Amino acid sequence: MGGSGKTTLAKELIKEIKKSLYEPVVLHIDDFIYPKNIRYNKNYDDWYCYYYLQWRYRYLIDGVLQPIKNGDKKLEKKLEIYDKDKDNYKLLTFKYMNENTILIIEGIFLQRPELKDFFDYIIYIDIPKKTRMKRVLDRDKYIGNESDIIHKYKNRYFPAEDRYEIECFPKQNADLVIK
Description:
- By secondary structure, the protein is α/β, with parallel strands linked by helices.
- The chain has a single domain, classed as Rossmann fold (3-Layer(aba) Sandwich), CATH 3.40.50.300.
- 42% of the residues lie in helices and 20% in strands.
- The chain is built from seven helices and six strands; from the N terminus they run H-E-H-H-H-E-E-E-E-H-H-H-E.
- Helix 3 packs across helix 6.
- The radius of gyration is 17 Å and the shape is globular.
- Keywords: Kinase, Transferase.
- Its EC number is 2.7.1.48.
């Protein structure tokens, strides 16, 4: 969930994997979001937009996950990656080179039905909401002041996360739970 330490853990995994014969490649689910006019649709509640309208899952599946699952051992292609400064996309060359490549997908809501079957191993970080809130208050200054951050998490992020827990049981379905 937000503020649990997903990005920090991914960075540590990459360091460890690089010590082996494997080559890590990381993608962040936040690189696959829709522009603001879609993910902040005024016709829906904030939590709904975050849970249902935020990410381009089909693009990630069609462009990366399905080809790898189908056995494409040397996938190299240009991907549209979200540019938050421009609220648009930039092209990034994605390379998945061979059976020694380990793809790490970092982000929230990765055990949703449309994604979960593409992963070989799922790590879930179980951190209390109160601790996560303290972390995001220090981290998410781009949202605004402390009051703005609390409002956004209480109205957008936390209700969507609660929905995710009810629908997908991420802690129970993970291969590893880190507390």
